[in-house]
Amino acid sequence: MQETLQTLVGGLSLGAVYALVAMGFSLVYRTMGLVNFAHADIAMIGAYTASTFYLTVRLPFAAAMAVAIVVTGAIGLVIERVLRPLENKDFDLMLIGTIGFGIVLQALAIIIWGTTGRAVPSPLDAAPFTVLGIRVRTYDLLVMAVAALAVVGLGFFLSRTKRGAAMQAAALDHEAATAVGIDVGRSNALAFAIGAGLAALAGGLVGPMLYVDASLGGALGIKGFAAAMLGGFGSIHGAVVGGIAIGVLDSYAAGHFQGYSVLVTFLVFTVAIMIRPMGIFGERTVSRA
Fold first, then answer.
1. Taking the model in full, what pTM does it have?
2. Who's near 82: CB < 8 A, 6+ residues apart?
3. Angle between helices 261-275 and 216-231 (to 10 degrees)
4. How far apart are the first and last CA of the chain?
5. What torsion, rounded to 10 degrees, do the Cα atoms 90, 95, 101, 107 define?
6. Inter-residue contact 24 to 198 (CB < 8 Å)
7. CA distances from 5 to 132, 138, 186, 266 (A)
8. Are 212 and 51 in contact (CB under 8 A)?
9. Which of the 8 DSSP states describes residue 289?
């Protein structure tokens, strides 16, 4: 029982990171009906940027994270602006465009930071503490707290602000939103920027937990994508539930199946998707293909 609870604690912190990645995927999808395949590499750029400003420039960890969010938010705006002429005209080319941006970001990361990668120390010096025999790292609690604040903040923005309401209106009916004066292009740009910021937040937080290199985006992206699918693509709440589920499952599989952990994780995920293809929350979203 104690071992299971210990695995659960470790899985929750990773799950919080996957949830942030999944939220970025879902936000862009629910707004534009587009899967941003560059999202994973934006998270990797965020991890590199945060680690650079934290380790090299010597900024406080929170400030380094803020810089990373601003940088990746700008990248998100650039991607949306380049793809905007294709909106409602060539959906397939937009998908290919996001893949192309991902390749470009990987190449830029290798040019700027090289291929060796880096280990990022925890920004918290506090030693782990024990609760009922379970060893809890203070950094894990920080990751879960930051992710929870991001979820609450995004939920408040979407439900309680005019800009958030405009984004959701544009997602429901592009033409009707335009007819009532909503700037759909601006809403889409904001969705890309916020999604990229969430990716940077995930990448920066996972730096002290995993090794930061050019392949980090692939590891985060595939599990974040799986989390978004499991929760229901386009559902923010589903992204959170899916992320936690994938994180706990991944942690449990790593502890019990070692080298086969990824295989076990995605076998369980595949079975779950076969049973419920729309995901746990099964929210239908816009399709502009």
1. 0.90
2. 97, 101
3. 30
4. 49
5. -130
6. yes
7. 10, 16, 45, 22
8. yes
9. -
How many C-beta atoms surround the C-beta of residue 39 within 10 A? 32
247 in Cβ contact with 22 (< 8 Å): no
CB atoms within 10 A of CB 251: 22
What is the spatial distance between Cα 57 and Cα 145, in angstroms, rounded to a whole number? 26
Give the pLDDT confidence of 154-177 residue by residue, as tens digits: 999 988 888 888 887 877 777 777
Q: What is the pLDDT of residues 202-249, one digit of tens each?
A: 999 999 988 898 889 888 999 999 999 999 888 889 999 999 999 999
- Tokens 């395949």 belong to 37
Q: Mind giving me the DSSP string for 110-142?
A: HHHH-SS-B----S--PPPEEETTEEE-HHHHH
Q: H/E/C letters for each residue in 221-250?
A: HHHHHHHHHHHCCCCHHHHHHHHHHHHHHH
Q: Encoding tokens for residue 98?
A: 């996001």
Q: Tokens in use for 206?
A: 């996972």
